[in-house]
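Entry 14. Structure prediction run on the chain below.
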Amino acid sequence: MLEEVESWLSTRSWSATERPLHRILAAKQRTGQTVSVVLPALNEEETVGDIASVIRHDLMRQVPLVDELVVVDSGSTDRTSEVAAAAGATVVHRDAILPRLPAVPGKGEVLWRSLLVTRGDIVCFVDADLRDFSSDFVSGIVGPLLTEPDVDLVKGMYDRPLGGAAGQGGRVTELMARPLLNMHWPQLAGFVQPLGGEYAARRSLLEQLPFPVGYGVELGMLVDALHLVGLDALAQVDVGVRKHRHQDGQALGRMAAAIYRTAQLRLARGHLIRPSLTQFERSGDGFEPRTYSVDTEERPPMVEIAEYQQRKAA
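Output returned:
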């Protein structure tokens, strides 16, 4: 590990317990910064309501840490929107944001569009499939942005159990993202959960970043933020244990392909020879190939979008 990273681990890796809520609130009042929480959601009716309820109760009613809670529905066919609204979240459909630009499927697309329907100086993203959710996930990762003026982006770090085994989750991280980062961006080797969906950043940083439309968004954002603001402006906070719905192996393969493509683009700024992935499923006649396209689109920095510029000027 680079000496720079060892130093970073000692100065930019914290536990959520290091910043009590009263200290975070005092910093928020002193600086006057506002906080938005965004939940990107696709068919998450079983969990999105509980997450929204905990945030509303703990961080909006009991204490005024979160100023707005927005669920961006990316095309759910279940009751995700209704459940989220009943829990007190503001629900916006992906297609209603920037309608002149047709939306494409993908998590990164939803995160990018969320910048147009939120106003917080700090934007915190939380995946909508978490179980046994604790509001520490929000206060823990937002805290350093309120107390440390030279920190611009904070990732959550946590244990990820799989099937009752501690630390066995995050398979794409261990098999794809971590090797890529260690080999090509060794300054980022200290991140425990580089692909984690729980992180917060200053709007002033997010609006300058391109957003891969799919699962490559977390890796792309981390790499681009490193180049834009430097390692010392990045941090991570231990928020405990993350429990969520796990994907099957083939879904993880498609996720890994999108992440590899995101890395490849940043390494060479070239083009993929074949932006697709073929996988195999057993059928009655043997193994049947199924080919999936790999996300090849990225959204430009939000600050370049006319509607966003107009809103900032208003």
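The chain has a mean pLDDT of 90.
Filed with the rest of this week's runs.
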